[in-house]
C-alpha cells in the first residue's frame, strides 16, 4: 500500500496543516512519507459527517454491525505482512510482538461482532403492565442500552494496533452503534493510515453511512482538543499520559454539555510478594517479574513498577537475582524520543534511591538500559513522586519492615490498573485485609502472576480508580468496554411494532432479557 | 418524636453553625424547633466515620444489607402518621400525596433489599482458565461489581421523603455497599431528622458499623460543597436546580481525584400531540395534561412544560379546553419562598408570550396561580430560555406549522428526562423519525400517557442527556440506580476460598453469572 500521508476522511482535507513524519526509533531517522496535520475545520467536518452518519448507523441491527466489524477485521488481516513491516519500522517493536498484537486487534473486532450479533448486551429490561393495580395502573416499561453518538478515539503510542485506529475503543464504540473519529498517534502514522484506509473501505463495502469512521492526523494537540470540545462528539476514549489525559478530561467536563471521557492514564501496578512465596520460589518470581518489567521495553500500562518485599534473607536473594537479570538485559529501543527523554529524566530522578542494577544515566534518544532501584516505604511515603509511573524497563523494590507498615502503605496507594500478589494459599489467607484494601485501589488483582498480558474476554477489567483511569466504573478491555458508549432508554406503553426488536413481545432476536425482574429468553 | 434540631451523627457536632427553621408554606410562619447547620469540621468527621465504616460495611453480604434496608423501611413505617403530619406542615403537600410518597420510599428500600439479597445485580463474569492455550495459557478471570466508597446524598425539596434522607439515592448507595452521608434539604428539616434518626437506629439495631449513615443539616451551601470535595467521599447524588447541580458537578470534576457526580437537574419534558389523537381525543388529553401539569403544584422534575400542537381546529379546541382547566385551577401553595419567587419571575418572563390562562402576575410568597402560555417554534428558537424548566403549575403550548419544522425543533432540543407522544398507532408509525430523534434526547419516551408518575421498577430510566442529568448512562430511579455506586473488580487466578462468594466455583449464592460468555446459574 502506498502511503498518502493524508487523513482518512470522506471530504477534501485542508492544506493548511503542518507536515510531520514518523521516525525509526532504531536510528532516529525520519521515515517517508510526510503526513499532513488536520486542522480545526477538518475536525468540524469529520464530526459533522459522524453526526449525520449516527442518524442511520445508530439504528443498524446487531447483525449489520457484526458484518461491518468482521469486514474490518478481514480487511486489516489482508494487510498483515505489509502492516507489520511498517509498524515495526515506526515503533521498533518486534515482529513477533506485532503479529500477536495484530491478532489481538482482529480478535477484538470479531469478539464485539459476536457480542452485538448475539444481542443480549443491550441489557433489555421489561416490566409488564398491570392495568388493575391500585391506586394507579402499572404501565408497560421496556428499556435497553442505546448508543451515545459520535465517539472520539485517541490512538496510543504503545499499542500501535490494539489501542489505536482499530483498537478496543474503536471496536467497542462502533459495536455499540456510534460512529468513530480517530485521532491517530503521530508516532506511527503509517500504520494508522494503513489500518484507517482498511476501515474506511470496510465502511464503504458494507454500505455503512459516510462518516461512520474517520481518521485525522495531527502532530500536535489541536485536533484532539477540538474533537473533545466539538458539540457533535458525545464521548471520547484516550490512552496516554496522566497530564494529557487529565487535561482532556477537564476539557470534556467543562463543555456546556459535558461528555463521558474515558482516559486510561497512569498506573504503577504494585506487586506484593508474601513470605512463603518468597521463601519457596523467590528466584522464579524474580525471573517472571523481570520478564514482565522488560516486556515491550517496559512500555505497558500494566508494567509492574513497585515491588513490595520484606527484609529477610529470601528477599535479599530475590533482590540480588532480579538485579542480575536487570543488569544482563540488552539495551532496549523506546517508542519515541519523548518516551526516551522521560525515561532518562525518570531514571535520573530516581538517582536518590539505591541503584541495584543498570547504569547511572540512561541512553540518549530512543535507547534505554534496564534499571532496578530500591527504597523503603518510609522514603516513598515522604516522596510519593518516586512511585509514579515510569515508562521503560525499570522498577523499584520497596522494602517494608512490618505487616502493619505494608497495610498502611497499601491504604495510601492511589488508583492503579492492577495489583499482583505472590503467595501460597496460606499467605493469601493471612493477607485477606491486604486483598480487601487492594480491591478498593485497582481494577484487577492478579494472584501468582504478572499484570502484563491483558486477556480480551468478558470478565476482564482493565480500569481502576483515578489516576489509573478517569472513570473506574468501566473497563477499556473486554466485552464490557461496550458499556462506556451506551446509555439506557425506556419506552413506556409503546405498541409492539414501534418498539426496537430487542424489546418486542415475541423476543424475535431470542436475547436474554430481564422480564419482571427475572432473566429469561422467553417472550413477554 | 421530639425534634432535636441536630444533625444525626455519631459524634458531638460543633456548636458554631448558624440556626435555621422550616417554614409553613401555607402562612409563611417559622416552624419550631431551630435546627443548627453543621460546619466543615462536621463534614470531615462524618466523612471520616463513613470511610472507616466502609471497610467493614463494603464486605457485608447481600442478606445483611437486605436486613438493614428492611429494618430502615420498618422503622420509618412506624413513624408514618407523625412523619406525614410534620412533612405536610413543612411542605404544604397533601397528606394523600405524602402517604403515597412514604409508601414509595419504603417500597424503594424493600426493592433494593430484594435485589441485593437475590444477588445477581453484581453482574458476575467468569472466564475459565485454559492452561493448554497457545501461545499463552488463558488465566482464570472473575469479576463483579463492588461498592465505590462513602456516597454523599443531597435531599431534594420536592420529594421530602422519596428523594431525600431515605430516598432512592440513599437506598441504592447503601444497597451497593456504600456508607451514606446525607445533606438534608433545609426546607423540610423536621421530616429529615425523623427519617434520619430512624435510619441511624436501624444501623445500630442491625449491627452495621458506626458511620454507615449520617445526616447533616445546613441552611446554606457550605456543607454540600465540603462533602463533594472531601477526599473520603467517592460519589454523590443530587436532585435540584440546574445551576446548583452544575456547580457541584464542576467541583466534583475539579477534585485532584474526580468522583462520579449524579445530578438530576433540569427537564421541560416536551409533549407531542399528533394529528389523529388530537382530532379523536383532544379534550381527554387536555384533561390528562392539566392533571400532570398541576400535580403537586407543578413541582415535579417530569412536569410537562412544552406542549407541541398544530394549528388546525382540533388543536384550537384543545388549547381552549386546557386554558379553561388552567383558569379553573385553585391557587397552589409552593414548597418554598425561593420556588415561589422563581415561579413569579418565570411567569413574568413569559409575559412576552401569549397568555392563554392565569393571572398576569403570580401570587406573592408561597402562593401560585396556574398559568398557560402559547408561542410558536420560531419564537422559541429565537428565545430558547423561554423553554427552560419552570417549577410550578405552568406550561407552554408551542405551535408548529409543519412536520419538518417539528422535526427540526426536536433535533434542536437539549436533554430531558422524558418526552411524551400522543397519537394513534398510525400517527406513531408516521412519526418514526420523531421517535428516533427523541430517543437521543431523553431517558424515557411515554406513549399516550403523561410523564409524571415515575414507576419504581427494573426497566425505569429516570435520566437523560445533559442538562436533564449530569450522566445519561445511569438512571436515578429503579433497581438499575444501584449501578451508579459500584465498579467492576477482577480477580485473576484466585484460589476459590479467597474469592467473593459471588465468584466461587460452586456458585453458593445461586446467582446468575456470565460463564465463558453464557448466562447461567450453574457452578463454574
Question: Explain this structure to me?
Answer:
Two copies of one chain form a homodimer. The first copy, chain A, is α/β, with parallel strands linked by helices and 524 residues long. Chain A contains 15 helices and 21 strands. In chain A, the strands form five sheets. In chain A, strands 13-15-16-11-10-17-18 form a seven-stranded mixed β-sheet, with helices on both faces. In chain A, strands 19-4-3-20-21 form a five-stranded mixed β-sheet, with no helix packed on it. In chain A, strand 6, helix 6 and strand 7 form a beta-alpha-beta unit. Chain A is globular and about 75 Å long. At the A-B interface, strand 3, strand 4, helix 8, helix 14 and helix 15 of A face strand 3, strand 4, helix 8, helix 14 and helix 15 of B. Strand 18 of chain A pairs parallel with strand 19 of chain B.
Which helices and strands appear, and what pairs or packs with what?
The structure is a homodimer of 524-residue chains.
Chain A: E1 19-23, E2 30-36, H1 40-57, H2 62-78, H3 80-91, H4 95-118, E3 125-127, E4 141-147, E5 151-154, H5 168-176, E6 180-183, H6 189-205, E7 213-216, H7 222-229, E8 235-239, H8 242-254, E9 261-264, E10 271-273, H9 275-294, E11 306-309, H10 313-327, E12 332-333, H11 337-349, E13 354-357, E14 367-368, E15 371-376, H12 377-382, E16 394-399, H13 403-411, E17 418-422, H14 425-430, H15 432-439, E18 444-447, E19 486-492, E20 513-515, E21 518-520
Parallel strand pairs in A: 3-20, 5-6, 5-8, 6-7, 8-9, 10-11, 10-17, 11-16, 15-16, 17-18
Antiparallel strand pairs in A: 1-2, 3-4, 4-19, 12-14, 13-15, 20-21
Helix pairs in contact in A: 1-7, 2-4, 2-6, 3-4, 3-6, 4-5, 9-10, 13-15
Amino acid at each position: 500500500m502506498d502511503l498518502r500521508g493524508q487523513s482518512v476522511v470522506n471530504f477534501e482535507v485542508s492544506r493548511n496543516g503542518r507536515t510531520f513524519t514518523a521516525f525509526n526509533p532504531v536510528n532516529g531517522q525520519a521515515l517517508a512519507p510526510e503526513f499532513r496535520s488536520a486542522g480545526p475545520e477538518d475536525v468540524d467536518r469529520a464530526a459533522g459527517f459522524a453526526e449525520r452518519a449516527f442518524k442511520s448507523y445508530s439504528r443498524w441491527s446487531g447483525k449489520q454491525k457484526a458484518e461491518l466489524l468482521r469486514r474490518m477485521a478481514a480487511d486489516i488481516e489482508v494487510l498483515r505482512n505489509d502492516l507489520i513491516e511498517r509498524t515495526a519500522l515506526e515503533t521498533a517493536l518486534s515482529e513477533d510482538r506485532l503479529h500477536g498484537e495484530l491478532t489481538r486487534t482482529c480478535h477484538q473486532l470479531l469478539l464485539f461482532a459476536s457480542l452485538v450479533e448475539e444481542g443480549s448486551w443491550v441489557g433489555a429490561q421489561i416490566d409488564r403492565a398491570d392495568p388493575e393495580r391500585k391506586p394507579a395502573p402499572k404501565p408497560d416499561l421496556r428499556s435497553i442500552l442505546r448508543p451515545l453518538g459520535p465517539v472520539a478515539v485517541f490512538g496510543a503510542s504503545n499499542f500501535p494496533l490494539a489501542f489505536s485506529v482499530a483498537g478496543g475503543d474503536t471496536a467497542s464504540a462502533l459495536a455499540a452503534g456510534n460512529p468513530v473519529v480517530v485521532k491517530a498517534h503521530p508516532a506511527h502514522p503509517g500504520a494508522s493510515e494503513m489500518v484507517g484506509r482498511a476501515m474506511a473501505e470496510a465502511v464503504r463495502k458494507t454500505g455503512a453511512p459516510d462518516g461512520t469512521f474517520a481518521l485525522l492526523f495531527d502532530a500536535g494537540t489541536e485536533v484532539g482538543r477540538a474533537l473533545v470540545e466539538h458539540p457533535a462528539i458525545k464521548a471520547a476514549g484516550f490512552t496516554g499520559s496522566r497530564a494529557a489525559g487529565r487535561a482532556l478530561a477537564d476539557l470534556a467536563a467543562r463543555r456546556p454539555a459535558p461528555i463521558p471521557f474515558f482516559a486510561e492514564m497512569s498506573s504503577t501496578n504494585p506487586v506484593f510478594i508474601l513470605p512463603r512465596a518468597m521463601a519457596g520460589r523467590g528466584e522464579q518470581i524474580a525471573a517472571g517479574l523481570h520478564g514482565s518489567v522488560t516486556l515491550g521495553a517496559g512500555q505497558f500500562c500494566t508494567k509492574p513498577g513497585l515491588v513490595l518485599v520484606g527484609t529477610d534473607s529470601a528477599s535479599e536473594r530475590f533482590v540480588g537475582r532480579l538485579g542480575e537479570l536487570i543488569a544482563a538485559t540488552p539495551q532496549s529501543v523506546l517508542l519515541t524520543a519523548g518516551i526516551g527523554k522521560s525515561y532518562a529524566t525518570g531514571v535520573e530522578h530516581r538517582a536518590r534511591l539505591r541503584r541495584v542494577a543498570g547504569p547511572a544515566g540512561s541512553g540518549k534518544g530512543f535507547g534505554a538500559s534496564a534499571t532496578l532501584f530500591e527504597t523503603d516505604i518510609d522514603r516513598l511515603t515522604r516522596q510519593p513522586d518516586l512511585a509514579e509511573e515510569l515508562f521503560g524497563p525499570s522498577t523499584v523494590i520497596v522494602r517494608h519492615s512490618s505487616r502493619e507498615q505494608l497495610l498502611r502503605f497499601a491504604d495510601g496507594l492511589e488508583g492503579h490498573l492492577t495489583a499482583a500478589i505472590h503467595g501460597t494459599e496460606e499467605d493469601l489467607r493471612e493477607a485477606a485485609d491486604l486483598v480487601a484494601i487492594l480491591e478498593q485501589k485497582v481494577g484487577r488483582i492478579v494472584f501468582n502472576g504478572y499484570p502484563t498480558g491483558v486477556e480480551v474476554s468478558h470478565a476482564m477489567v482493565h480500569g481502576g480508580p483515578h489516576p489509573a483511569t478517569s472513570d473506574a466504573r468501566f473497563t477499556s478491555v473486554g466485552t464490557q468496554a461496550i458499556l462506556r458508549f451506551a446509555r439506557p432508554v425506556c419506552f413506556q406503553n409503546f405498541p409492539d411494532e414501534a418498539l426496537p426488536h430487542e424489546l418486542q413481545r415475541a423476543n424475535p432476536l431470542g436475547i436474554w432479557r430481564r422480564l419482571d425482574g427475572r432473566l429469561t429468553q422467553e417472550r413477554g
